[in-house]
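Anyone able to model this chain together with zinc ion?
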Amino acid sequence: MTDISAPVQSLRCPCRSGANYAECCEAIHTGERDAPTAERLMRSRYSAFVLENSAYLLASWHPTTRPATLELDPAVRWLGLVIEETVSGGPFDAEGVVEFTAIGRDTDGRFEQRERSNFSRVDGRWVYVDGASA
Ligand SMILES: [Zn+2]
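re: yes, here you go
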């Protein structure tokens, strides 16, 4: 098969949904739309890491656990995201858990970061609470 995806590839959403950024995480990043599920919020946060959108990362963090500032490591390049498991976090839930593996590369080479993250809602909006290595 001929690869005609190259120009389109650059528009693909970094969260690996297969959709274009404009139809995927962009509206969540701009605040135009809310993430309907904890997994969706998690994906939008991964995209924000790829795009180095620290303002969105802070905005989607629970106020009780949110750091005052967020310094993103410029040496890290995020290469992929795998959702391993989700518990609750649906449209009718108040809390949810998402376990994922983020694949990245830094000056030491490729690495995988597996984390189990907790999400809850503040004023109806999903936010990231905290996470632990899994
Ligand atoms: Zn996306």
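Helices lie at 6-9, 26-30, 38-50, 54-59.
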